[in-house]
Design brief:
Strands 3-2-1-4-5-6 form a six-stranded mixed sheet, sandwiched between helices. It is elongated and about 65 Å long. It is built from twelve helices and six strands. The chain has 278 residues and is of the alpha/beta class. It folds into two domains: 75 residues, lambda repressor-like DNA-binding domains (434 Repressor (Amino-terminal Domain), Orthogonal Bundle), CATH 1.10.260.40; 183 residues, Endonuclease, Chain A.
Length: 278
């Protein structure tokens, strides 16, 4: 196989490939030898070593078995998760850790259905669109969808958190993935609203300037009553625990809920969209 000289400092992905190659050579294995041990083709191993193929969770676990690194500080799976999270905005990986053990989750979203409420097909349509734009690779799209599934599973625990979700009307009117995907997504929203631990509200267009939040917001309450605030811009995420900055956001969220439609009216609007009526 062609082996280009990879600079480990070029990127986390390059460092991963360079280390995989180094450990293989230290053992006197060819790429064919390692591929056989990992259950991959030698072409695939070459691609990871050269940095042209993005590693995955499955490949990393296979590498750990092959090199005897399972559960160690040097595990490839651990390195891969750092790479994957490195592609996320600042603060988000830490936010997700808290999200999985929050007792209350409050979210506001504009333009798209919030991640925790997305169907797999809706999430896939968004990820595939990012691939077509060249923003992420197909492998990263797969990981993005699976990572979202992990987040969704974490809040479906035996004692789930209370979930308050307020969506701008644009979230349910913006078509994503075609008619069938949107129909299933809207149906999922009505099912979410019927759960005993949820409150779903739509902030309609006609509240105009009374919409108190202009960007997506995530607020978590932990068991010790600590409140964590997370928000994103196009290029940066921000995680905050300071009450002096978190409380005004919480107040704005409550004010938005007061202006938004009730859950019954929100579900009625969603059902009208499902029937194709304005």
């Amino acid at each position: 196989m062609n082996q280009n000289e990879l600079n480990p400092d070029a990127s986390p992905q390059a460092a991963y490939g360079a280390r995989l190659r180094r450990l293989r050579k230290e053992r006197g294995w060819t790429q064919v030898d390692l591929a056989r041990r990992m259950g991959y083709s030698s072409v695939h191993i070459s691609g990871v070593e050269n940095g042209s193929k993005f590693p995955t969770t499955r490949l990393s676990r296979s590498a750990d078995v092959a090199f005897g690194l399972v559960g160690t500080a040097d595990a490839f799976e651990r390195e891969y998760r750092e790479i994957k999270h490195g592609g996320l905005l600042e603060g988000f990986p830490e936010y997700v850790k808290y999200e999985g053990r929050a007792v209350e989750i409050r979210q506001f979203e504009v333009g798209i259905v919030p991640g925790l409420l997305q169907t797999p097909e809706y999430a896939r349509a968004l990820a595939d669109s990012a691939v077509r734009r060249g923003a992420i690779t197909p492998e990263q799209a797969d990981e993005r969808v699976s990572f979202l599934a992990e987040r969704q599973a974490a809040v479906k625990r035996p004692h789930p958190p209370m979930m308050f979700v307020t969506m701008d009307e644009s979230c349910i009117r913006r078509p994503v993935g075609g008619a069938a995907v949107m129909e299933a997504q809207l149906a999922h929203l009505t099912e979410f609203a019927a759960l005993p631990n949820t409150l779903l509200q739509v902030a309609p267009y006609d509240i105009g300037e009374r919409r108190t939040l202009d960007r997506p917001v995530n607020l978590l309450m932990l068991s010790d009553r600590t409140i964590i605030f997370y928000a994103e811009s196009q290029s940066q995420g921000h995680l905050d625990r300071e009450s002096t900055s978190v409380m005004p956001v919480l107040t704005a969220y409550h004010q938005l809920q007061a202006e938004a439609l009730s859950q019954a009216a929100s579900v009625a609007m969603i059902e009208q969209l499902r029937k194709g009526t304005p």
